[in-house]
């Protein structure tokens, strides 16, 4: 009997070796993609995005023009800077534009005073809070007005030792990697914002700064108030974002260590596992074949001035029980993904911030039937990626956008994709040397109607391919992370496409909101040719928020419905979902 069972199993394995794309009703690549989406959500929870703006207390800039002609006055042909550092070269062109100055204008004492005040405000608006711009006594008979600048410089950066544990303060102050400026540099508010972001990036840290006079004339000291009651954080998560086959309910436990080396660095380790509601079959011999998922992830990141360096690694394993006539099979797979990245803030002012980033990555996956690897489905790829990210805080709300390019190479022993072996010389459906462009655009707008507070937030994500793509690199839509309203058991995928999410939120209590979501997406590409319209639309209504209960409990519960889909696309008529997270 065991011989017959083994023969049947090996026959099934042989079938999938010959026809590897018929591997499972629940495509394994979908399982890998689902895990990557959950991994992205984990990173968002444990590595919160921090955006510090310190210019909120500065006076608003009013329209400024020079007053009426005066007497006595002197004709001035040009305005220049008198031996000022290059950092202040912006003052004169901005001053001319904002004041309405034209060559030959006659300037008296009031106009000169107005120009000096405006020049000082221009310097402050650029973040030079402690620098002085003034008009020194001079002879205007030459027709040239010279502005003088006395740069305000940084004296020292010191941490208040009476705040919290002295040993912890000593560790954070031992390394000068948090602020991009050093003693003697011209003091600029933008550098202080960057330093404060580097300190506040750790959720267990409370940090603030103030400026005090330095020991030397023209210098100012930065005094940092820094507290970290506990460096350890725990995060527990439960959701129903999994598959009915491998585990509808998923859970994870993460341990984060903030500032382990005194560098404002962050380390976390997480473990995930299914929580049940999965397929399981028992054959005639009483042998049970089960399903399930498990995974882990590791992260470390450290800031150095305007730079942020990070390392990530995660692994994933799944088992899917496949019911047969005489025997059941364990269709399973595993994947690993690693990357190292560096990003730098290349521009920031009171409203805008631009970041450039680069990454080296490697990933591999293998699939099995029982303990027999399906070698033609083995993948090992590596390459690099580059991105640019921009964020803007405007008077009516905020905007953000990013553009990224991902390239596969032959580094780190990469294997050619199975799709590249094509004896007929047809167009290959995929390659390990992929070329992919990603773009994201989002907005958030708060508003008020009567006594009620509302907000709108929306995001559009798009993908373009400049090479054939394997299924793992396709854009897949039809889940809570893309187009909501669908159960996520199936998806539409293609080499290129886009989706948009829109939320109208009612903030009925502080930290609690009800929301209505409307999403749409479509995919296209070589793999979708000849198929019905590949587009989805869906809607959700839900509640989300956070409540302090010892730690912080956050929740998101929703009901969704599909609004538009291809006729062949199978999904529940109504979907229900939840995501619970507790951190302490």
TrEMBL record:
Residues in Haemolysin activator HlyB C-terminal domain copies: 218-545
GO cellular component terms, semicolon-separated: cell outer membrane; type V protein secretion system complex
Segment forming the signal sequence: 1-25
Biological process annotations from GO: monoatomic ion transport; protein secretion by the type V secretion system
Coiled-coil region list: none
Domain ShlB POTRA: 165-213
Database matches in Gene3D superfamilies: membrane protein fhac (3.10.20.310), membrane protein fhac: a member of the omp85/tpsb transporter family (2.40.160.50)
Subcellular location: Cell outer membrane
PANTHER family: OUTER MEMBRANE TRANSPORTER CDIB (PTHR34597:SF3), SLR1661 PROTEIN (PTHR34597)
Protein name: Hemolysin activation/secretion protein
Native species: Uruburuella suis
Lineage: Bacteria, Pseudomonadati, Pseudomonadota, Betaproteobacteria, Neisseriales
């Amino acid at each position: 009997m065991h011989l017959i069972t083994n023969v049947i199993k090996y026959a099934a394995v042989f079938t999938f070796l010959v026809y590897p794309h018929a591997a499972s009703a629940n495509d394994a690549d979908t399982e890998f993609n689902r895990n990557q989406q959950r991994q992205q959500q984990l990173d968002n929870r444990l590595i919160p995005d921090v955006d510090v703006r310190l210019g909120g207390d500065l006076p608003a800039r009013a329209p400024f023009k020079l007053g009426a002609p005066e007497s006595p006055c002197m004709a001035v042909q040009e305005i220049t800077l008198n031996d000022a550092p290059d950092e202040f070269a912006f003052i004169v062109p901005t001053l001319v534009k904002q004041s309405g100055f034209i060559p030959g204008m006659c300037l008296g004492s009031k106009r000169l005073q107005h120009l000096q005040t405006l020049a000082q405000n221009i310097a402050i608006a650029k973040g030079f809070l402690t620098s002085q711009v003034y008009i020194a006594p001079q002879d205007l008979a030459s027709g040239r007005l010279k502005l003088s600048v006395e740069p305000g410089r940084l004296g020292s950066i010191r941490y208040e030792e009476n705040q919290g544990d002295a040993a912890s303060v000593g560790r954070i102050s031992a390394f000068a990697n948090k602020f991009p400026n050093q003693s003697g540099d011209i003091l600029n508010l933008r550098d202080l914002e960057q330093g404060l972001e580097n300190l506040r990036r750790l959720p267990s840290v409370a940090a603030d700064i103030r400026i005090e006079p330095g020991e030397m004339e023209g210098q100012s000291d930065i005094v940092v108030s820094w507290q970290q009651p506990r460096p350890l954080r725990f995060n527990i998560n439960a959701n129903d974002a999994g598959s009915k086959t491998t585990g509808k309910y998923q859970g994870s436990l993460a341990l984060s260590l903030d500032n382990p080396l005194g560098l404002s660095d962050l380390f976390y380790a997480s473990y995930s596992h299914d929580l049940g509601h999965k397929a399981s079959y028992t054959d005639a011999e009483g042998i049970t074949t089960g399903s399930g998922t498990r995974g882990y992830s590791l992260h470390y990141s450290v800031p150095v001035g305007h730079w942020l360096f990070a390392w990530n690694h995660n692994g994933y394993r799944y088992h899917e029980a496949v019911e047969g006539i005489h025997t059941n099979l364990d269709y399973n797979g595993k994947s690993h993904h690693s990357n190292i990245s560096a990003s730098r803030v290349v521009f920031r002012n009171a409203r805008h911030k631009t970041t450039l980033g680069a990454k080296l990555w490697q990933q591999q996956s293998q699939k099995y039937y029982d303990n027999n690897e399906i070698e033609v489905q083995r993948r090992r790829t590596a390459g690099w990626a580059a991105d640019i990210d921009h964020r803007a805080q405007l008077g009516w709300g905020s905007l953000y956008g990013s553009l990224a390019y991902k390239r596969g190479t032959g580094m780190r022993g990469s294997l050619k994709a199975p799709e590249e072996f094509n004896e007929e010389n047809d167009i290959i459906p995929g390659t390990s040397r992929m070329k992919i462009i990603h773009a994201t655009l989002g907005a958030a707008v708060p508003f008020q109607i009567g006594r009620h507070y509302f907000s709108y937030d929306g995001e559009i994500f798009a993908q373009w391919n400049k090479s054939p793509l394997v299924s793992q690199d396709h854009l897949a839509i039809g889940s809570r992370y893309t187009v909501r309203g669908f159960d996520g058991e199936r998806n539409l995928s293609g080499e290129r496409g886009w989706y948009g999410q829109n939320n109208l939120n009612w903030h009925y209590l502080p930290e609690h909101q009800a929301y209505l979501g409307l999403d749409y997406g479509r995919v296209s590409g070589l793999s979708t040719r000849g198929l019905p319209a590949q587009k989805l639309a869906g809607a959700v209504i839900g509640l989300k928020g956070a409540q302090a209960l010892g730690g912080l409990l956050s929740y998101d519960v929703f009901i969704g419905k599909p609004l538009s889909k291809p006729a062949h696309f199978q999904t529940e008529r109504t979907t229900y979902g939840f995501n619970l997270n507790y951190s302490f």
